[in-house]
Amino acid sequence: MFDSSLYRKDFPTWLEQQIVALQQQDGRNLDWENLAEELVSMGISERNQLKSRFAVLLAHLLKWQYQANKRSISWFTTIANQRDDIEDLLEENPGLRQYVPHLLEKAYRNARREAAAETGLALKVFPEDCPYNLVQILEPSFLCDTTDDFQNSTGID
């Protein structure tokens, strides 16, 4: 019999018990309430990961666009890696696509603030609404051409 108090006091043991019960299709030993809570939490976590990746990517695209004289390999690799990671995340979790418009809006709000803080430029320099659409954001040749590793218009090698 499962012990639902393990959920709060010994999560790894609770998790192992739940995995075994699921594998054995033993509904009597499933902690239905806490399993449902965990599944909801997993969905939120996936959406938050996507939002965070968009925020990092958008902040770097803004910095790339508005501070061309400070472009760096670090910015380039962050843009390239975030594009790849977002594509991978959306490929592995196609259901996340439905949340993209809302997440982009929230991510841009954070990215705009971060870009202003990191560049020293006034917040009002950056558009209030995201100036890029999803296709542009993920397109390797848009703004910061990440089609080929470490080759772009700034001559960074």
Describe how the helices and strands are arranged.
Blueprint: H1 6-9, H2 11-23, H3 32-66, H4 73-92, H5 100-119, H6 134-138
Helix pairs in contact: 3-4, 3-5
Major sheet: none
Percent helix: 55-70%
Helix/strand structural class: mainly alpha
Mean pLDDT: 92
Kindly provide the radius of gyration, computed on alpha-carbon positions and rounded to a whole number of angstroms.
Answer: 21 Å
What is the terminal-to-terminal distance?
A: 61 Å
Globular, elongated, flat, extended or rod-shaped: what is the shape? Answer: elongated
Strand content: under 5%
Number of helices: 6
Low-confidence sequence ranges: none
Order of helices and strands: HHHHHH
Q: How many strands?
A: 0
Polypeptide structure, described:
By secondary structure, the protein is an all-alpha fold. The protein is built from six helices and no strands. The mean pLDDT is 92.
Provide keyphrases for this structure.
157 residues; mainly alpha; 6 helices; 62% helix; elongated
Summarize the structure.
The protein is built from 6 helices and no strands.
